[in-house]
Structure of Phosphoglucosamine mutase:
Amino acid sequence: MALIKSISGIRGTIGGRPGEGLSPLDVVKFTAAYGTWLIKQHPDNKKVVIGRDGRISGELVKNLVVSTLNGLGLDVVDLGLSTTPTVEIAVKMEHAAGGIIITASHNPKEWNALKLLNSEGEFISGADGVALLEIAEQEDFNFADVNKLGAYHQDDSYLQKHIDLVVNYPLVDVAAIRARDFKIVVDAVNSTGAIFIPALLKALGVAHVEVLFEEVNGRFGHNPEPLPENLTALSNEVNRSNADLGIAVDPDVDRLCFVCEDGSMFGEEYTLVAVADYILNKRKGNTVSNLSSTQALKDVTLKHGGEYHPSAVGEVNVVKKMKEVNAVIGGEGNGGIIVPDLHYGRDALIGIGLFLSHVAHSKKNLKNLRNSYPDYFISKNKIELDKGVDVKTIFEKIRGKYKNQPTNTEDGLKIEFEKDWVHLRTSNTEPIIRIYAESQFETTADNIARRIMQDIKEFM
């Protein structure tokens, strides 16, 4: 059992004892804390938007969330089966006080979570998260009397509204996409991507679409994190069916990656690189990605005359930095695309529209397009943490061991080795340390990561 409280929301495994997993009591407690915080922030706005991915526990958690919000006197607009970016957009369009997305993103089926949004449709800040957790800890709730209970309303219009925003975005070229006559295979991982991605592709003029894992049942056909080792079925089907490309999303459709026509990976790190290249060719400006993302984005940004800025890991941190530097595109190396003049949130739908426009304009296949970018290799690894491990002390000891190398402690510990780097940090969403290393050579990246992982184990 696990329960994690962070800037990414409240996330845990379903069941178990209260406080040790995401039990019904925990769902009610943290929803009540969020609703109480919202009322303090917006005493005259009672509207909250919710939506969920296709998880097995989704309906259960949704019912608890709705009843708790209504019990506080808040009115709920329920988008039903939806995506994280769709709920973010709906919060703004509905002029709501906030929103909750019921999803554990890339985590396996036993997990679920409450992703919490402010009135801008963006993830709440770290400071707001601390205030919310204090309310939860004190159980400082004041539920409404029977005459002031909140209302409940279902709204299934936002699938089309989100698609319309993408199709009508100025840099999405539907005519060019249609003319290219793409054949595409989609891995929808048994969640809401099976609803949203085929509908989007049809609106973009893609006539030939095959969907793998298309039943929305939450019983994920493979580990739902869109990493190469989990996408073998997609890779094989793209190759077998002579498709132009494959598309993979995570269960809440905010992460995006592509498979080339030969079944090889375009690389989740290069989703943002390719989209940024397309955007920067049309609009000059700055870019942002987190400290764990490839330096290829910096190379592409400088090529177009812009400035690149790194941020701490976490969507809220990327968004904050994007606003500070007025970035025209940003995101994360996990396949998260943030297009600020659409909305400040990772969005696989706008990512698909822009990426397909880029491919259509380039006249290249995906393999050739990928080969046109600087070639870096990131070795992505993780070590599970036992309860009570002192990560801060471990990082201090590692920093001491590599004291002659440049380091960055803004988010965990990043160590630079001439042209290579390694970044280690605790996850916001799992009880693990993530270890990412990048080099121009795959074996070098792997060796750096292995060396640091050995250091971590030595100091644990």
Q: What stands out?
A: The domain at 377-459 is CATH 3.30.310.50 (TATA-Binding Protein). The chain has 15 helices and 20 strands. The first helix runs from residue 24 to 41. The chain has a mean pLDDT of 95.
